[in-house]
Design goal:
Number of domains: 2
CATH topology of the largest domain: outer membrane lipoprotein receptor (LolB), chain A
CATH superfamily of the largest domain: Lipoprotein localisation LolA/LolB/LppX
CATH class of the largest domain: Mainly Beta
Structural class: alpha+beta
CATH architecture of the largest domain: Clam
Strand content: 35-45%
Largest sheet: 12 strands, mixed
Number of helices: 11
Distance between the termini: 91 Å
């Protein structure tokens, strides 16, 4: 009798005194995917928090998406606005308003890579829709319910997502990360299954976290939202090409001069001294993490290094933001960088007049600077490499 009473008491406690946690997180993800797929025109606020390489970051974005767009690049129109800039795509033209520089940039032919590389796009319901669709039936994916949490007044269920030996990058492609587990966490509204918070964890203990608040489904929006007509009178409007031309002109003063010598360590602790490579052409790429164009250039830079290595070209990547090396390693792995990376290159970047990334500096065999460019231009760089070999 005592045993039966105890059994009944435990059963009642479990059913009524405890909150049950779904044992099928795949079903939760499927419901979240269905929720995301039915969204068309909507706005929300994104609270971004990040800690990478010992550096903490926080920002509040106002975001607007329109999935009824006929655009074939990313399948949506979007607008992201934060204190220092506005980044918007109307289905044809990409706009970026730089408040501090008082410049409105326009790109008439943006690439899908550029559109998807923005931080607010990475931390968006739009990216999550594609992310979940990619992983939900992938045998290399592990998902598990890890608890519940009240986030901003919304009761959520937290799902841990482990991608074994692969990851999905912001611009929707996947890369192999042999021997590495890539860990994410998604918090969803227990009632609606809407995403509330998405976290990406890094190997060095850092993270990127996006919290979605004030999501509203809209019937229509002011057309001016897509044409960026609210530009102050003191702003200068120009194309991306014009903007980069102005910035490049400041760096091209290096051309014809002997490259300043330097000594840096690579990620294995080995010394790299430029002057010891006299007689060998060198391509230096100055870059830093969280630089969208730097990430976009990775496949081409890998290709250059592979193609011209046997012909004597030395390619070295100089990281000049000086974040912690553990974070650099994690970043390199996530983005598939294959070229040797030199660290703590801030002073070298200053000596070379580097103001942005990626910047490419090509040296001939005498180590005279023959080419400097902010941004990767394969059509201009490859002929110069051929010339110095």
């Amino acid at each position: 009798m005592k045993t039966l009473t105890t059994f009944l008491f435990i059963s009642i406690l479990f059913l009524f005194g405890c909150k049950s946690i779904t044992v099928n997180p795949e079903e939760d993800l499927a419901q979240t995917l269905a929720y995301l797929e039915q969204l068309e025109l909507y706005q929300y606020d994104l609270i971004f928090e990040g800690r990478q390489g010992g550096v903490e970051d926080k920002a509040l974005f106002s975001c607007l998406f329109d999935h009824t767009s006929e655009d074939t690049l990313v399948g949506t129109r979007f607008r992201f606005e934060v204190d220092s800039f506005l980044f918007a795509f109307n289905g044809e033209v990409l706009f970026e308003k730089l408040h501090e520089e008082k410049i409105l940039l326009q790109d008439q032919t943006p690439s899908a890579l550029t559109l998807n590389s923005n931080l607010a796009m990475y931390m968006s319901p739009n990216f999550l829709m594609n992310f979940i669709d990619e992983i939900i039936n992938n045998p290399q994916t592990e998902v598990q319910i890890v608890g519940e949490e009240n986030i901003g007044g919304t009761q959520t269920k937290k799902i841990k997502i482990i991608l074994n030996e692969f990851l999905i990058r912001p611009y929707r492609d996947t890369i192999v990360t042999k021997g590495v587990q890539n860990i994410y966490e998604l918090a969803i509204d227990e009632k609606t299954k809407a995403p509330v918070q998405f976290t990406v964890y890094f190997a060095d203990g850092g993270f990127d976290k996006g919290t979605f608040t004030n999501l509203k489904v809209l019937e229509n929006v002011d057309p001016d939202q897509w044409e960026i007509t609210d530009v102050p009178m003191d702003f200068i409007s120009m194309s991306w090409e014009e903007y980069w031309t102005i910035r490049r002109a400041k760096q091209e003063a290096l051309v014809g001069k002997h490259a300043p010598d330097f000594i840096l360590l690579d990620l294995e602790g080995k010394s790299f001294q430029l002057s010891k490579l006299i007689g060998q052409p060198v391509l230096l790429e100055f870059w830093f993490p969280n630089c969208g164009p730097c990430v976009a250039a990775v496949p081409e830079v890998n290709e250059i290094a592979d193609l011209y290595k046997a012909k004597g070209l030395k390619v070295a990547a100089v990281e000049f933001s000086e974040v912690k090396e553990k974070y650099i390693l994690d970043y390199i792995m996530k983005n598939g960088m294959e070229t040797p990376t030199l660290v703590k290159g801030k002073e070298v970047a200053v000596n070379y007049g580097i103001s942005g990334g990626p910047t490419f500096v090509l040296l001939n065999k005498k180590h005279e600077v023959v080419y400097v460019r902010l941004g990767l231009d394969m059509g201009g760089l490859i002929p110069m490499i051929e010339e110095v070999l």
